[in-house]
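Here is one chain, start to finish.
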Amino acid sequence: MSERGTLRARLESLAREVAKFGVVGAFGLVVNIAVSNLLWRYTDIPTVRAGLLATFVAILCNYVGFRHWTYRDRDKSGRTRELTLFLLFSAAGAVIETGVLYVATYGFGWDTPVQSNVFKIVGIGVATLFRFWSYRTWVFKALPVPAEAAPAEAAAGKSAAEESAAGESGADKGAVLSVPAPVVRVEADPARR
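Its structure:
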């Protein structure tokens, strides 16, 4: 595959991942806002604490969506490690999200229901950038590339058989046998456009 084709395939894969992350995140946003508003309206829990509780309810919903849909093709070997990292990075995201709400509520005194919702959404937006990076980098790790998928790496070095054949034929010991990588052309499915 050409360098341009490889780049295009990687960008398409990233776009699909971002879209799936966005769908799960949108569901989490609805859960987060709904639980926040229910707590704000029907309980005496302070604004920031209610927002934090709602965030943790949304985090639990999001884990199910991320694990079983967005990142279902990723490594599943260490679920305990994965869940621990997910909760750790989600807690860091919750601090970011709740920090924005805290500053708006207690720093500026903006605590009407509309203002609380606006700053809750702003905090979620900022925290989402951090969560996307951390989840894809640390939590839901990509599986290693199979050996068949890296023919260029294998072609760059000489095999033991090539080295012994070069030695037996009396070829120059410094000569490198260059084997071109096979070219694979992948056409886009016109039905998917």
